[in-house]
Design brief:
2 copies of one chain form a homodimer.
Chain A: H1 9-12, H2 35-40, E1 61-63, E2 68-71, E3 77-80, H3 82-92, H4 99-102, E4 104-105, E5 113-114, E6 121-129, H5 131-135, H6 144-163, E7 168-175, E8 180-189, E9 191-197, H7 200-203, H8 207-210, E10 222-228, E11 242-243, E12 262-267, H9 278-307, H10 311-341, H11 343-359, H12 362-383, H13 386-398, H14 400-415, H15 432-442, H16 448-462, H17 472-480, H18 486-499, H19 506-514, H20 517-523, H21 526-566, E13 580-585, E14 589-592, E15 595-597, E16 600-602, H22 603-609, H23 620-627, E17 643-648, E18 660-662, E19 668-675, E20 693-697, H24 698-708, H25 712-717
Antiparallel strand pairs in A: 1-2, 2-3, 3-10, 4-9, 5-9, 6-8, 7-8, 9-10, 10-11, 12-13, 12-18, 14-15, 16-17, 17-20, 18-19, 19-20
Helix pairs in contact in A: 6-21, 9-10, 9-11, 9-16, 11-12, 12-21, 13-14, 13-16, 14-15, 14-19, 14-21, 16-18, 17-18
């Protein structure tokens, strides 16, 4: 038993044999220890290779910050999901040239278009265990807040030091809730260009209707290229930059795929909560998700109403709506899964098992109970103010203009500090260029009427908060209007805010971005004033959160170590946006009695679903070729037709989008772009019966490129033959 | 080629080998000729046996008038669908004894309850080819109207003659649109009693949500018993009656069922339209079904609104709502299928094939074209008044009180005629007792506010009819109110109708049922007066229909004979509520790319779907036994659990409900109770890939009877062992 002892993770990984192979998003360093399993499942590479982040195949896997991707040519060509290059399509689209609908293909390098100003390619170059440096100096007598602050400070210092040489982005990430800290170093490539995306009717075939669903028929893929300066170092976008030459790139495969085949998924999954306590699962099920659903529905209702009959407004709100809808559907599905699969009960059972295990040693049992008890009290403290804190966060989602005001105000405040380490995370010197980009980028999403209607609704929500959880700043601002009645007060406040702000004006915002606090104050912008007042609560909430984080770092590793013991050491950390490898096999599932969802879909489904109208509007050329069954060598010999997608027992989460699905030889067999509806609770509890990842089949990608879009230049660049005439 | 020659059908059936076996609802007499196919599919009985309607197994198959059923004991026990005994449950339910929700089991004969007064069991005893008698005397020079009238008259005479001995119900049915006339004689058993039905949470598990759907988990079965007088002859309900002793009854089987097994379905399918022309299919797709959908939605909206918050109103309207919803879903599904499977295009293609065939013989081609042309003109004539005629029919659906008024008025008029053969069909002497029962039965469905709201909506619809299709009687009645504006006129008319009618009063209606026309007139009932005026249009429409029927009888057999030739003689007639046998096998299907619907469902699905609330509210005892996996010998050895339902490639239509699904030995393996959503266009065009019939598995029926409801008395009566203690 070592659940209560700190054990450096990289040294301590040892696995019991025969355990379910599918659940983990493993750290690459954990893979060698899983080699026997992988070999048995058909792996033809050396499992040890996965621990080498600069070797093959991991050296080809990159992060786009929020999406995963891979190099597929020696000259910096990157394949990822269509929905990961969507922003670049949107950014370059004009009324004359509808790149979103029609897709885009650069037939020469010169035709490639700049991706979003914020687009980045991060190539992980090193991982280092820095746990001792971070936690070594921590005194047991520290307050939780102080503990969190010291950890923050150490991390910031370490990152600054790491990034000193320039062109690098570093992060210190916590694994197993602070049991392990790793410093991750990545090359930050800033000149990213859009190379190719199929038409929306391929890349987003099915859109929201099919989102989170299997069987799926979406060709969710697209291509970027990474550019660097002539010296081979990252550089800002410039015409004379040259393609980045990665050390490794992956081959996109046309090999046959069958149920049972091994699939390895390499990418940057965002966040999972599989190692939290049952109590936290219950809070999520009973409060967090239902509340988020309610607020999303409220805001979506407003945005849809605002856009009714107004195409311009619809376009401005499209991205906000997509993001709200996406997780609305996710949370609904998650709650459904919780209910159907009794996920909370499963979690409770596994905690009961843990307790029984410790019951055999009264001393340990007592310690475990004490930790659980203390953790439980911390959660109760959060619960007491969660109505207020949740709604506070939604004010900024409801009003992008308020969010911009907050960004500008905080930028001024933080920049005024002299010690960069004292600056809030995301407001350090290293963040300024990105934040400035954000100010520019957000211009496309600002729509004053929608903004006001959204803020109105959520300010009205604040007026219904229970006593003890009031947002006093809002209460005061409403009272100060002198109007009679809540509705009138809200309208008066909004009149004041929207009548006295320049938040909708990009030039004004950019000027304010560079303002000192004093200069900003003197502008007397009403929205900035409101944001400044609201920050008081924001700071209180952050302090709360830090206190919780300090306690968490102290307590949670001990809870997790207990789980690891029960699993005989075979435990993957929760996802945290760092490079991971999952593995499993191509496999059907039975979503309900009498129904089987097969492991592969075919072009037949595209033809069946196609209605000629969004979201099922395949390009005419695709339909014609498909009707004529002109699939060339891309057809699947067993299916007897063109494969489109497949599912694997690997599991993913937000951020995994674009992850390469590697076959046993380490070639790209497909790209992960979604998970299935039935497996959607997997961020919390994995039910192996249902959890699947949805991949677009590489053969479909190549057929579309070759036959439909004639992207022959790219196929040649990728070292692949061309089978269709232009 | 003999498409243009009349060929007596019973003699002329000869089949080509190797043709698809599943599409037909075969006349029993056609089965022997299909013997080789059946033997190959596994039949262990003599195929010739199916032509003997009084032998085994056909002698056990009965009609309930609208539902199919079978004798399962020597003492008149009948098994059918739960939804076929539903009316009897409703009829006997009281506030103290909720038979609908709880189900019902008579543990002794004395506890059995009378079914509805209109309940009947029809035991077919003879079929005779009477084509020569009906069509022989018809002169080619007759007008179409006269032709139809003569056929009607011959049929009526034949029926009266047939029914003379008493206790019999005879009908002369047209097959292949008048190519063949058969006289069907059935024993009419009038004392029908409710013996057993499981709880609603079994018998109607899933209700509307699952209706027309597969995979399915409904235990849609129930039991009646047929009683006769002590002399063995049919008699009105009386305590001293004795159970009917059928010549044959079927065994309910616990044998294993597997995909690929032969299934024969014996029952009384109502109506199909598979032999109509493509033009008629187009009319149905483009006008009839969309219009019916629109009117159903209109009326349903009204009925739901009327019932809001009023349980009493909901109950009164429940049956109307169920019936409107049922075909609303059907029509929506049919249109979806038409669209998805391009059923009209298939039909058009097969007509093109026909034409090509005739193209080789110019003389025949010309005749065929002439017939098609004439038929087409007839259809155009119908089309010119279809808005009016369709809406006319809906007035009576909208207002059950108007329908009652019509029934009473017509009863008076027709009874006044001295020659029974001159009386309208359904208003002959033989129909009076049943019609009187209808007057009684309808009392439960009359709800004045809903009635008025419904009639209001449809009268408003009549005001929007195009010129040339006006319902003049309604126009005149509205104008006569003297009110200003359409809405006011409608209200005034409704005030007059509902203020001056006794249609909601059962005693008054029963008295009127016996009134002479004159006596009825003198009562001055406003609704009867309105119905009488509307009859003028009704009569015109009936004359139109008769004219069409006469022409149809003259032309359509020739079109059908052409189809038969193309199918090398292997053609089943369209369903017409007569006894039919279909056959096929237990088989899965793929409703769409990547999805397989398995051929069998299990108790797992019941547990998964159960929510504890309608319509997924299994009885607690069922859930407990299922959770404990106490299935006894009813479990399926391959599935490893209790089977619930299965699908077969046989096809069905309305009226097939309760049809026995026989295994290769002629035992009951299940009961058909629905068809699948994907196959729903099969009334028009059969797409073998999708069309399936949904059966409840006999093993599920027996497990429910044995383990859940303890219907051990019935199991013993059926000669089956009991495996569970009470």
């Amino acid at each position: 038993m070592r659940w209560n002892r700190y054990v450096p993770m990289l040294a301590a990984l040892c696995f019991a044999a025969g355990v379910q192979a599918d659940e983990g998003m493993w750290m690459p360093q954990q893979i060698p220890a899983l080699g026997d399993e992988l070999k048995e499942m058909g792996l033809q590479l050396d499992p040890g290779a996965f621990a080498d982040l600069t070797g093959f195949p991991m050296g080809a896997i990159v992060s786009l910050g929020g999406c995963s991707a891979a190099f597929v040519s020696p000259t910096g060509l990157i394949v990822t999901n269509h929905h990961c290059v969507y922003g670049a399509l949107q950014y370059n689209a004009t009324p004359e040239r509808d790149l979103i609908a029609d897709g885009f293909l650069a037939r020469t390098r010169e035709e490639e278009l700049p991706a979003l100003p914020t687009a980045r390619v991060y190539v992980t170059t090193a991982i280092e265990d820095v746990t001792a440096t971070i936690t070594g100096p921590l005194d047991a007598g520290l307050s939780d807040l102080e503990r969190a602050k010291r950890i923050d400070r150490s991390r910031k210092q370490m990152v600054r030091e790491c990034e000193k040489p320039g062109d690098l982005r570093c992060q210190v990430s916590s694994f197993f809730a602070g049991e392990l800290y790793l410093k991750l170093t990545a090359l930050e490539i800033k000149d990213v260009r859009l190379v190719y995306a199929p038409a929306l009717g391929i890349g987003n075939f099915g859109d929201e209707q099919d989102n989170w669903m299997w069987p799926r028929h979406t060709g969710d893929f697209g291509y970027y290229r990474a550019y660097v300066g002539k010296d081979g170092k990252p550089a800002d976008h410039a015409p004379h930059n040259v393609p980045f030459r990665p050390q490794h790139h992956l081959k996109v495969s046309t090999r046959d795929l069958d149920p049972g085949d091994l699939i390895l998924l390499a990418g940057y999954p965002g966040t999972t909560k599989r190692l939290v306590t049952a109590e936290e699962v219950r809070d999520a099920q009973e409060y967090d998700m239902p509340t988020s659903i309610r607020y999303r529905e409220l805001l979506l209702g407003i945005l849809y109403a605002q856009g009714e009959g107004k195409r311009e407004v619809q376009i401005r709100n499209a991205s906000r709506i997509a993001s709200l809808e996406n997780y609305l559907k996710n949370f609904r599905g998650t709650l459904e899964a919780f209910d159907r699969d009794r996920l909370l009960q499963r979690k409770l059972q596994s905690e009961t098992l843990l307790q029984e295990q410790f019951g055999r040693n009264p001393d340990q049992a007592q310690r475990y109970a004490a930790i659980r008890g203390e953790f439980s009290r911390l959660l109760a403290g959060q619960r007491a103010v969660r109505d207020r804190d949740t709604l506070y966060g939604w004010l900024y989602r409801a009003s992008p203009m308020l969010a911009q005001a907050d960004l500008l105000y905080r930028t001024g405040v933080e920049r005024a500090k002299t010690d960069d380490d004292e600056r809030d995370e995301d407001f350090q010197q290293r963040d300024w260029p990105r934040n400035r980009n954000t100010v520019e980028r957000m211009q496309r999403e600002i729509e004053i009427n929608s903004d006001r209607a959204g803020l109105r609704a959520f300010i009205l929500e604040t007026t219904m908060l229970p006593p003890g959880q009031r947002i006093e700043v809002v209460d005061a601002a409403l009272a100060a209007t002198g109007a009679q009645g809540t509705e009138a007060q809200v309208e008066a406040l909004l009149d004041r805010l929207y009548g006295g702000t320049k938040m909708a004006d990009l030039d004004a915002r950019l000027a304010m971005f560079d303002d000192s606090t004093e200069a900003l104050r003197q502008r007397g912008d009403a929205m900035i004033g409101f944001a400044a007042a609201l920050r008081l609560l924001g700071e209180r909430i952050e302090e709360q959160e830090k206190t919780f984080a300090g306690a968490e770092q102290r307590l949670r590793p001990q809870l997790i170590a207990a789980i690891r013991d029960m699993k005989q050491g075979r435990l993957a950390p929760d996802a945290n946006s760092t490079l991971r490898v999952g593995f499993g096999q191509i496999k059907e599932y039975a979503p309900r009695d009498g129904v089987v969802y097969e492991a592969q879909t075919t072009i037949r489904g595209v033809l069946d679903k196609d209605t000629g109208a969004r979201p099922f509007d395949s390009p005419a050329r695709l339909l014609r070729l498909a009707e004529q069954e002109r699939f060339g060598p891309y057809a699947d010999p067993d299916l007897g037709t063109l494969p489109v997608g497949f599912i694997s027992t690997v599991n993913v989460t937000g951020g995994s989008s674009g992850s390469s699905a590697l076959n046993a030889r380490g070639e790209i067999a497909g790209l992960a772009f979604d998970m299935n509806w039935e497996g959607i609770g997997a961020d919390w509890v994995v039910n192996e019966t249902y959890v699947r990842t949805v991949q677009v089949d590489a053969r479909y990608m190549l057929w579309v490129m070759d036959a439909v879009d004639g992207a022959h230049n790219l196929l040649r660049e990728m070292g692949l033959p061309v089978h269709f005439a232009q």
